[in-house]
Fold:
Amino acid sequence: MKSKLTLKETIVVASTLFGMFFGAGNLIFPVHLGQMAGSNSWPAIIGFCITAVSIPILAVAAIGNTHSADLFELSSKVTGWYGLIFTTLLYLTIGPFFAIPRCATVSFTTGLEPMLSGSSIRLGQLLFTFVFFAVVMFFSLKPSGITIWIGKIINPIFLLFLGILVAVALFNPGAPVSQVEPVESYANGAFFNGFVEGYGTMDAIAGLAFGIVIINVVRGLGIEEDNDVARQTLKAGIFTGILMAFIYILTIIMGAQSRGLFELSDNGGIALTQISGHYLGGFGMLILALTITFACLKTAIGLVTSCSEMFVKIFPGKFSYRGWAILFTVFSFAVSNVGLTAIISYAIPFLMLLYPLVTVLIVMALLEKTFDKSRYVYVCTTIGAFIPAVFDCLKTMPEGIQAALGIPALAEIGSRLFPFFDLGLGWVVPSVIGCIIGLVLKKIKN
Structure:
């Protein structure tokens, strides 16, 4: 029985995994992070790579380690109703609430918006997103090989132009990184802010949602034993992680250096547009914008398809695949018109709630054999992560909502109750305590 992939097969799996994770949206966060971190970029890079590289790779390995058919089956190890709610929220987050609309807004921000001004920006965004989602709906309702073709053609072109942009920018810096003053929040807490900023890529969530695709690729290459599947998936993931980390490091440094040319931007999409316009000129910026748009189209079609298929499974008889696809596409079109900055700001509370739950689920899935897959451990650890995650969610809501709900007072309570809460890691200690309680209950039960 085959237990290892060849080097060529490992590269095939790694490239598939990279294509699943890395899209145009993965550039806007590291570029903006670099602008904010400035001379403190390296601790920020380390924190960012933990949540944007390491945890996503482990998420895919977790699916293989537990032999789960999908995220719903994995999360149901806590309880069935939790699995349903968790899976629903997770797919809505990487689907019509945030990730799918973000595909359209990133494309517009880096492509058409720089050519518009004043009131024409709103109209241009409306027309652009309408055409964008019309294409998404067409290919989502009639699945074909177009997304694979786009991936094979556009992704290499996208990486080529990105490589040219990064190389030119790094060799002609606007300012040395060491001379760029970090914003206030990154002056002393760069590592922890970079850690939380990595949430925005949503790759750990995507890893849990789409991990089964990679597992099937590994099985298709002849690996049958579950433990071997998990090991070979992790091995390929390390290749992918190294490449992703390399790109992130370069783009973060590029973002930091750009502060010598531009003021701190509202979001990474604007920063990327400014940088590409400065170094590549109008033609280069146009080519980059086109490749980003096609890459985002591919991602959006894949997300609509995946979300629709999952909702048909977990809500049988409610809507057909076609009904879910239409609903998600129309809803995403509406959300996309609030703008990239607004989408990012409203996504943060959801991510602060979900990422602790995602992280503890991944860790438990990888280590479940050490506690005999006990439901007590799954439940207690999840509860330990959930309570402070709710406080984290509330404290990162937009200021208007916070004021209306009296959330600042709750944030103060959270700061007193949970160690490391002010660093965005208030869930760590309660999760460990929950795990210990779960182990004790398991021992008592036995």
Summary: The chain is about 80% helix and 0% strand. Residues 268-314 form the longest helix (47 residues).
